[in-house]
Write a structure and sequence with these properties.
Blueprint: E1 2-3, E2 6-8, E3 11-13, E4 20-25, E5 30-36, H1 40-57, H2 62-78, H3 80-91, H4 95-119, E6 124-127, E7 131-139, E8 142-146, H5 152-165, E9 169-173, H6 180-192, E10 199-201, H7 206-215, E11 219-225, H8 228-238, E12 244-248, E13 253-257, H9 263-275, E14 285-291, H10 292-307, H11 327-342, E15 346-349, E16 353-354, E17 365-366, E18 369-372, H12 379-382, E19 389-395, H13 398-405, E20 410-411, E21 413-417, H14 421-430, E22 435-438, E23 453-454, E24 457-458, H15 463-469, E25 471-479
Parallel strand pairs: 1-5, 8-9, 8-11, 9-10, 11-12, 13-14, 13-21, 14-19, 18-19, 21-22
Antiparallel strand pairs: 2-3, 4-5, 6-7, 7-25, 12-24, 15-18, 16-17, 20-23
Helix pairs in contact: 1-7, 2-4, 2-6, 3-4, 4-5, 9-10
Bound molecules: nicotinamide-adenine-dinucleotide.
Nicotinamide-adenine-dinucleotide binds next to helix 7 and helix 8.
Length: 482
């Protein structure tokens, strides 16, 4: 059985403990590879290697760093098909999603930051006749990057690329649930000629390998994407060593549909924003508020389009809905469907585990599920489910829907559907959310700030925000002599 390896000091290696964890293919419900069960010892080795590499990497020019990062981007592009297949098998996502979204974006992340670092600039502040201040933005040192399973290579590279482009060396941990493409990336980094120790990838459990990264005193910053509870733990644990923190956490995003919207475009996009990647995208809109005048029509059309979605083997070209990432996550989703029923919810479509025939008979599949008749403030509508489950609710006024939308502890993203320009701007301003899409969803410009408010996190990724996070500012004040 294939054994995934760590990537430390430029080489692929076994974990110090010699122990491995099972890695499941969720579409067939079987173990198909083994993951290093790394511990503090591996993290210490990785940090030492990163510290050595930092002496050279931090003094290179942005152009020089660009050349190797762009090679990694090109190698990801070259291996699009095999990486997409690996991602689909590891995660359960439909192959067409991995091929059109995950892997192209991983390549773009490296391309974007390889070039962005060459355009990055810092401020100067003139004191007329007295002095000139300028700000140096210098790499921090060794930084930790920890990522989740829903968009494995996409989110892993979204952190690593800016960290490296800014001149840091990285100790990264992909999730133990979907580690395969991070392992394949380490091979591509070797092929691209990334100097040893600049990037180290340590596989293993969050509570062991991840915690060791967070607790290491020479790791100066942590960029983390994952659950809010883990984020809370990291914030507490990182505080005594004053690490810089960027936390991209959970969401419970509202999708607000006004009667004057472009109905067809809204409907098609709402099916995607509800169920893409089995609803396992932090930006999916799981609370759908629909203006009363079109509620009944929307309900019928939305349920019809949803029940037409093809649930199947993720590797089949016509599959829309693949497998849920793990058995325990599937159980969690199903338990939320039960909770919704207890809370008075009515299932319009879906609501069950799906048993497929053949190769995927033991896979973890759940029907895309629409629930109505729930109060906006019940648990189903307040807690993150992170699966193919949405709730639809009617509203009458703008004030009312804003109150519903802003009622959760989360504030990651929101969508607003309306042709009324004034209303779009007014609502966008009042939403408690880091990202607002008007008449669209998941349209991403990598230059824009990305992140959430409230319990959805702190700090922003994307564009120069990430380069600011991954550098330390130093003000130099030069007195002007007579
Ligand atoms: P998770 O918090 O369980 O794990 C995320 C990562 O943290 C994994 O690599 C895990 O091994 C590691 N980890 C776990 N415990 C740790 C610890 N004590 N110390 C250090 N590392 C630790 O999250 P998940 O289940 O993998 O991902 C799903 C969550 O991620 C959802 O809540 C989703 O909303 C969120 N998410 C947020 C964004 C965003 O941009 N805001 C994007 C994607 C996913």
């Amino acid at each position: 059985m294939l054994k995934i390896e760590n990537y430390i000091d430029g080489e692929l290696s076994s974990p110090a403990s010699g122990k491995y964890l099972d890695n499941f293919d969720p579409a067939i419900g079987k173990v198909y590879s083994l993951i290093p069960d790394s511990d503090e010892k591996d993290v210490i080795d990785a940090v030492e290697s990163a510290k050595r590499a930092f002496r050279d990497w931090s003094t290179r020019t942005p152009e020089d760093r660009h050349d190797v990062l762009i090679r990694i981007s090109q190698l990801i592009e070259r291996d699009l098909d095999s990486l997409a297949e690996a991602e689909s098998i590891d995660n359960g996502k439909a192959l067409k999603v991995a091929k059109s979204l995950d892997i192209p974006r991983a390549s773009s992340n490296f391309k974007f930051y390889a070039t962005a670092a060459m355009h990055f600039a810092s401020e100067s502040h003139q004191m007329v006749g007295q002095a000139i201040n300028y700000t140096l933005r210098q790499p921090i040192g060794v930084v930790g990057c920890i990522s989740p399973w829903n968009l494995p290579l996409y989110l892993f590279t979204w952190k690593i690329a800016p960290a490296l482009a800014a001149g840091n060396c990285v100790v990264a941990k992909p999730t133990e649930i979907t580690p395969m493409t991070a392992y394949l990336l380490s091979k591509l980094c070797i092929e691209a000629g990334l100097p040893k120790g600049v990037l180290n990838i340590v596989h293993g459990l969050g509570t062991r390998a991840g915690a060791a990264i967070v607790q290491h005193e020479d790791v100066k910053a942590i960029s983390f994407t994952g659950g809010t509870k883990t984020g809370e733990w990291i914030a507490r644990e990182a505080a005594p060593t004053f690490k810089k923190l960027s936390l991209e956490l959970g969401g419970k995003n509202p999708n607000m549909i006004f009667a004057d919207c472009d109905y067809e475009e809204m409907l098609e996009t709402t099916v995607r924003s509800s169920f893409a990647n089995q609803g396992q995208i932090c930006l999916c809109g799981s609370r759908i508020f629909v203006e009363k005048a079109i509620y009944e029509k929307f309900k019928m059309d939305f349920a019809a389009m949803t029940s037409d979605m093809k649930i199947g083997d993720p590797l089949n070209a016509d599959t829309d809905i693949g497998a849920i990432v793990s058995e325990s996550h599937m159980e969690k989703i199903l338990s939320y469907i039960d909770l919704a029923k207890e809370e008075g919810g009515e299932i319009l479509t879906g609501g069950n585990r799906v048993k497929l025939q053949g190769r995927c008979e033991n896979g973890y599949f759940v029907e895309p599920t629409i629930i109505e008749n729930l109060a906006y403030d019940c648990r189903t509508n307040q807690e993150e489910i992170f699966g193919p489950v949405v709730s639809i609710m009617p509203f009458e006024t703008e004030e009312e829907v804003l109150r519903y939308a802003n009622s959760t502890r989360y504030g990651l993203s929101a969508s607003v559907w309306t042709k009324d320009l004034s209303r779009a701007h007014r609502v966008a301003e009042k939403l408690e959310s880091g990202i607002v899409w008007v008449n669209t969803w998941l349209l991403r410009d990598l230059r824009t700030p990305f992140g959430g408010v409230k319990d959805s996190g702190m700090g922003r990724e994307g564009g120069f925000e990430a380069l600011r996070f991954f550098t330390e500012e130093k003000n130099v004040c030069v007195k002007i002599g007579q």
